[in-house]
Amino acid sequence: MKKLDVIAAVLLVVGGINWGVVGLTGSDLVGTLLGNLSPASRAVYILVGLAALYQALQWKAIQHRWQPAYAR
């Protein structure tokens, strides 16, 4: 599960950076790199959304998984 936690975190960073660039410049990096609403860019957007949903629903479990054994 830790691998899934890391993948979700990376996707959220990608999404966060993209939204930061959109807010600052009005330019969509994912759309620019992969094509505006192309199947590839839509897949990235869907994966980022799923990662956010996963993080929101698994927040407590993720904290527990990543807590050192001596702190439990």
Question: Explain this structure to me?
Answer:
- This protein is an all-alpha fold.
- It has one domain.
- It is 79% helix and 0% strand.
- The protein contains four helices and no strands.
- The protein has helices at residues 2-25, 29-34, 39-57, 59-66.
- Helix 1 packs across helix 3.
- The chain is elongated.
- The two termini are 18 Å apart.
DSSP strand (E) fraction?
under 5%
- Indicate how many domains the architecture comprises: 1
Uncertain segments are none
**Which sequence of SSEs, written as H and E, runs from N to C?**
HHHH
Helix count equals 4
Largest sheet: none
Using the alpha-carbon principal axes, give the shape: elongated
The helical percent reads: over 70%
**SS-derived structural category:** mainly alpha
Brief sketch in words of this structure:
Helices cover 79% and strands 0% of the residues. By secondary structure, the chain is an all-alpha fold. The chain starts with a helix and ends in a 6-residue tail after the last helix.
Layout of helices and strands:
Layout: H1 2-25, H2 29-34, H3 39-57, H4 59-66
Helix pairs in contact: 1-3
Task: Give descriptors for this structure.
72 residues, mainly alpha, 4 helices
